[in-house]
C-alpha cells in the first residue's frame, strides 16, 4: 500500500564520510586552520558556510574524503527547521558521520531532519530510494528518532495517495496493517451496522458513496492511563450536495489527514511502547453525491442524542467526528484527542505551517507548547470561546453544523465537537496536513502536524513514569 521504506540510521560500524558542519560566522577561521588542500578547494568552490551549501573535498583517488556543510548563522537557523537536512539533496550517495558543528542539544532534531529528508513518494513513478545515510550521532536516541520518522512516513504516504487508491477500504487496510504490526486489536463497524450500533451521522455522511462508510477501532496496551485518538477519515470530499468548485476539490484526497496523523502518532506510541492504554477511532467515509445523499436542511440525530441541523453538506467532517467522540467518551478516557483537516478558517488564521489546537486544560496547553518548541513541530493555541456557543445553536435543532456569518469558523467547529465530549479532558487539532511548498526535510505533499509535539508532551500530560519519552 505505502511507498516509502521506513527510515533508519546507518550501521555505526560502517565506513562513513566525515561531515564538517560549519557556522557561517566561524567558517573562515575553520578554513584558515585546515590543511591547504581543504582550504583551497573550499575557497575555489565558493564555500562560505551558508545553510545548505555543500563542498565535497576529494581524496587523491577522487573519492570523497570529507564534506563541508554550511550551517548558516545562529539567527538564520532560529528562523528555520532542520537546517542540516537542507544539505542532503546536494550530497553524493554514501554513508555519513557527523564529525563536528552541531551542538549536542540540536543533534536529535537535526538527525530526525536527515531521516525525514529521505522520504520519497514514488508509488506512481520510478524514483529509487534515497542513498544518503547517516550514522546516528553520539548521544542521540536512534530508536526513538527512527520511530518518529517512520510515523511521519506513514502519514505522508497515506495523505499523498490519491483517493482512487485510498478510500475507506484502503484506509481500513492500512490501519489493520498497523494494528497487526503492533499486535493491537482491530475491529470495524460498517455500512448498515453503523445504524444498528448507533453511529448514525457516520452513516449519513458516507451513505451516498458505493465505498461503504465505517468506523475503525484499534486498541493497544494493557496498563497505564487511557488515551483515545480520533482522526477524521474523509477519504474524499466532494462537498456533497453543496458541491465544491473544482479548484476547492483538487486537494481533497488529503481530507483524511486527521486519520493519517493519528495513525502516525499511534505508530510512534506503540513502537516506543509508551505505558498507556491506547485507542484509535477513525470514521472513514467518502462524502459523495447521489440520490440518497444527506441534504441541506436535514436534521440528524447523533449518537449522544443531540440533533444537528444540516446547513451545509460540506461541513461533514465534524459530523463523523461527533459520533466517534461520543463513542470515545463512553469509556471515560483520561485524555481524548481529535485531529482533523476541518476548516479553511484555521488556514486563514495561522497559515499552513502551524497546527492550531484547542483545550480547556491550561497545564496541557503549556506542556504541548513547550514540547512543540523542543521538537520543531509548531503549534498554536486557539480559544474554546464560550460566548460563541450561540452561533452553533439554530432554531429547530440542538446544533447547527455550519453557522452563517463567516466569522470564527475554526472556533465554532471546535465548539461543535466539544459538545460531544461530555466532561472528558479533551484536545482538538484543526490541521492542514499538507506542505504547500518544499522545505528542508518537508517535501511538498502530505504532512504530519502536531503529532511529534504530542508524543513529547504525553508523559507530562498523562503523568507517565520518568523515562517514558
Automatic annotation (TrEMBL):
GO terms for cellular component: cytoplasm. It holds the Pfam family Peptidase_M17. The keyword Manganese applies. Residues 312-319 form the Cytosol aminopeptidase domain. Its EC number is 3.4.11.1. One of its GO terms (biological process) is proteolysis. It comes from the Bacteria. Keywords: Aminopeptidase, Hydrolase, Manganese, Protease. The keyword Glycoprotein does not apply. GO terms for molecular function: manganese ion binding; metalloaminopeptidase activity. InterPro entries: Leucine_aapep/pepB, Macro_dom-like, Peptidase_M17_C, Peptidase_M17_N_1. Gene3D superfamilies: Leucine Aminopeptidase, subunit E, domain 1, Zn peptidases. PANTHER family: LEUCINE AMINOPEPTIDASE-RELATED (PTHR11963), PEPTIDASE B (PTHR11963:SF20). Belongs to the peptidase M17 family. This is Cytosol aminopeptidase. The gene is pepA_2.
Amino acid at each position: 500500500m505505502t511507498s516509502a521504506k521506513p527510515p533508519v540510521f546507518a550501521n555505526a560500524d560502517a565506513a562513513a564520510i566525515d561531515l564538517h558542519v560549519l557556522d557561517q560566522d566561524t567558517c573562515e577561521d575553520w578554513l584558515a586552520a585546515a590543511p591547504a588542500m581543504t582550504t583551497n578547494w573550499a575557497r575555489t568552490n565558493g564555500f562560505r558556510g551558508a545553510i545548505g551549501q555543500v563542498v565535497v573535498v576529494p581524496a587523491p583517488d577522487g573519492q570523497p574524503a570529507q564534506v563541508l556543510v554550511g550551517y548558516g548563522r545562529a539567527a538564520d537557523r532560529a528562523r528555520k527547521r532542520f537546517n542540516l537536512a537542507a544539505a542532503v539533496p546536494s550530497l553524493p550517495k554514501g554513508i555519513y558521520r557527523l564529525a563536528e558543528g552541531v551542538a549536542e542539544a540540536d543533534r536529535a532534531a537535526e538527525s530526525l531532519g536527515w531521516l525525514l529528508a529521505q522520504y520519497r513518494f514514488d508509488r506512481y513513478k520510478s524514483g529509487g530510494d534515497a542513498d544518503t545515510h547517516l550514522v546516528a550521532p553520539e548521544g542521540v536516541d536512534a530508536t526513538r528518532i527512527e520511530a518518529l520518522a517512520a510515523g511521519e512516513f506513514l502519514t505522508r504516504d497515506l495523505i499523498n495517495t490519491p483517493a482512487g487508491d485510498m478510500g475507506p477500504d484502503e484506509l481500513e487496510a492500512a490501519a489493520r496493517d498497523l494494528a497487526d504490526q503492533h499486535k493491537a486489536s482491530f475491529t470495524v463497524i460498517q455500512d448498515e451496522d453503523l445504524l444498528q450500533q448507533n453511529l448514525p451521522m457516520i452513516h449519513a455522511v458516507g451513505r451516498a458513496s458505493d465505498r461503504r462508510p465505517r468506523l475503525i477501532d484499534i486498541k493497544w496496551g494493557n496498563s497505564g492511563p487511557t488515551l483515545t485518538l480520533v482522526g477524521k477519515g474523509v477519504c474524499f470530499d466532494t462537498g456533497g450536495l453543496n458541491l465544491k468548485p473544482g479548484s476547492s476539490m483538487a486537494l481533497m484526497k488529503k481530507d483524511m489527514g486527521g486519520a493519517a496523523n493519528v495513525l502516525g502518532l499511534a505508530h510512534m506510541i506503540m513502537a516506543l511502547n509508551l505505558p498507556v492504554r491506547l485507542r484509535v477511532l477513525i470514521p472513514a467515509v467518502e462524502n459523495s453525491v447521489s440520490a440518497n445523499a444527506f441534504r441541506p436542511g436535514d436534521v440528524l440525530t447523533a449518537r449522544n442524542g443531540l440533533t444537528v441541523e444540516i446547513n451545509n453538506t460540506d461541513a461533514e467532517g465534524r459530523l463523523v467526528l461527533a459520533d466517534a467522540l461520543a463513542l470515545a467518551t463512553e469509556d471515560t478516557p483520561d485524555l481524548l484527542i481529535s485531529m482533523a483537516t476541518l476548516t479553511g478558517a484555521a488556514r486563514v488564521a495561522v497559515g499552513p505551517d502551524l497546527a492550531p489546537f484547542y483545550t480547556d486544560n491550561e497545564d496541557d496547553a503549556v506542556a504541548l507548547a513547550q514540547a512543540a518548541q523542543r521538537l520543531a513541530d509548531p503549534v498554536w493555541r486557539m480559544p474554546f470561546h464560550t460566548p460563541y456557543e450561540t452561533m452553533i445553536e439554530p432554531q429547530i435543532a440542538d446544533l447547527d453544523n455550519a453557522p452563517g456569518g463567516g466569522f470564527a469558523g475554526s472556533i465554532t467547529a471546535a465548539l461543535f465537537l466539544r459538545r460531544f465530549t461530555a466532561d472528558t479532558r479533551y484536545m482538538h487539532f484543526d490541521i492542514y496536513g499538507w506542505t504547500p511548498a518544499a522545505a528542508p526535510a518537508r517535501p511538498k505533499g502530505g504532512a504530519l502536524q502536531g503529532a511529534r509535539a504530542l508524543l513529547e508532551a504525553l508523559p507530562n500530560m498523562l503523568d507517565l513514569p520518568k523515562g517514558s519519552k
